[in-house]
Amino acid sequence: MKKIALISLGALSMLLGLVFVIIPGPSLIFFIAGLFCLSFYYPKARGYLTLCQKALTKSCAYIDKKLAR
Q1: What is the band of 5 on the pLDDT scale with cuts at 50, 70, 90?
Q2: Which of 6, 25, 29, 34 could serve as 20's disulfide partner, Cβ 3.0–4.6 Å?
Q3: Cα separation of the two ends of the chain
């Protein structure tokens, strides 16, 4: 039951992320939440989650540097 709930929540979050790519909204947050839910059962999703987290960390550091000037 828990596995089905996590997979469906992850799939729903990923779909919402895709919708928010087309419509302006917080798509990256939904992608990361969906990958987090899916990473419990799919190792490939865990790799993509790590990749997204690294990209988000780099972009936040870049923006902080630009705003500090």
Answers
A1: very high
A2: 25
A3: 51
